[in-house]
Amino acid sequence: MLMLVTDQRHFLAPVKEESLKRILDAGTGTGIWAIEVGDKYPDAEVLGNDLSPVQPHWVPTNVKFEVDDIEAPWTHAKPFDLVFARYLDGAISDWPALVSNMYNTTRPGGWVELHGFDLHYTSDDGSVKSDSYITQFIATIDAGCAKMGKELFTGPKLSGWLKDAGFSNIHVQAFKVPSGPWPKDTKMREIGTVNLMQALEGMEAFSLRLFTGVLGWKLEEVVVFIAKVREELKGKSIHPYIL
Length: 243
Prior knowledge:
The protein is an alpha/beta fold. The protein has helices at residues 2-5, 32-40, 95-105, 133-147, 158-165, 186-214, 219-234; strands at residues 22-26, 45-50, 63-67, 80-86, 106-115, 177-178, 241-242. The chain has seven helices and seven strands; from the N terminus they run αβαβββαβααβααβ. Strands 3-2-1-4-5 form a five-stranded parallel sheet. The protein has a two-stranded antiparallel sheet with strand order 6-7. The model has no long low-confidence stretch (mean pLDDT 97).
């Protein structure tokens, strides 16, 4: 979905290809971004790190994965030309410390690119109400993340963290990400369809452990609540999006 949003661009930073020698994908997850970037830039050394060793073993020769905690002190021997991180909403306890590590590990003239969301569902036509199930769903996830000391709504805060860490030439680019096939624009309708599909399929993964293990909900309560959220998201009466 994120590739659709960015018109198939793996990163937006104005990095010249000849200057890309070392790239870090911090919190790489499945490793798909690092693998695709390694294929696209075969002369660059691409490192992806994550606490979970779920990345594939068959990867381009210039791509390497490490099991590492990106919130621990960074010990990379050589700086990076590009440090990239996305979709870490709700995963990080100390963003200022993380961004400071990025600053100290990026070569002078290099770039750090962070992608984060403002996960508050909204609408331009007022169809998303403050008491809607999708609004309650995100608020409950935020409450669980806050109880764990994690930041959920990272998007609006990224530029401030970068500035505080000492970065300059900071650019902010916001994208509207609809949920559902309601937009008239063809591209936005495709993004909305994919976003809705991943939300419906991943709803338990997003919430089940958080609601029951952290917030103390009963499993039956979560199942009923998620069913109502799904029904609302699939309905045609609301036109939600996030940024």
